[in-house]
Every structure is written in C-alpha cells, then in structure tokens.
C-alpha cells in the first residue's frame, strides 16, 4: 500500500471514529439565547453526554421541542406535583430556563412536558 493510500485510510478512519463518538456518546452544541443565563451565557458552546443514567431536578438537558433543539434545567421529575396541581407523567420532565424573565420554557407550552425520548444529551459543560 502506498503512502497516500495509508494517509487517506487514516483520515477516513479518524473521521469515522470522531463521527461515531459525537453521534453516539457526546453532544456539541451552541446556545443562541439568554434563557440559561447566568449558568450558560448567550453564544456559548456546550458539551453533553448522550449516555444518560439518571436525571434529577437541577440537571441541565439538551432536547428537542417543536422541531427545535433547546437547553433547559429540569425543575420537576416524573411523579412530582406541579404548583398548579398537575402531576408530571412517568416518562416526562418539566423544564425551566435559568433566566426565567426571558425564557420560553415549559410554563408557556401547550404540552409542558419533555418526554424521555426527546432528550438528546445531559449537559456537562
């Protein structure tokens, strides 16, 4: 095998490994709004893990909602009672932004719950 072929093979293998790591294990994203300030500033890049063992109030998640990818903090977990008396369903979470004066979070959604299957990753930094 010639040197250019080895180099090309190494580049392809490296690309595939990085692709698989970020497709299966990690998440890299961008936060365009101020809804998570002061914890995460507008314009920040975030890193998360797709290997989620458990979630608790206070954890920050990256998830899909209405065809958008959002980052919010979990406020209530399955079985918790919300201030309005509703109970969080078994497969869902209720989320709020840290900067609640500008956050369009679950308080304002038609369906205020984030289902487990919509969660992409758990925020690391």
Describe the structure.
The chain is built from one helix and seven strands; from the N terminus they run αβββββββ. It is α+β, with helices and mostly antiparallel strands and 125 residues long. The protein has a seven-stranded antiparallel beta sheet. It is elongated and about 70 Å long. The mean pLDDT is 93.
The number of distinct helices, counting runs of at least 4 residues, comes to 1
By oligomeric state, this entry counts as single chain
* β-sheet strand percentage: 25-35%
Shape: elongated
Notable traits:
125 residues, alpha+beta, 18% helix
What's a quick, concise take on this entry?
The protein is an alpha+beta fold and 125 residues long. The chain is 18% helix and 31% strand.
List the helices and strands and how they pair.
Elements (H helix, E strand, L loop, with lengths): L2 H23 E6 L12 E6 L10 E6 L2 E9 L15 E5 L17 E2 L3 E5 L2
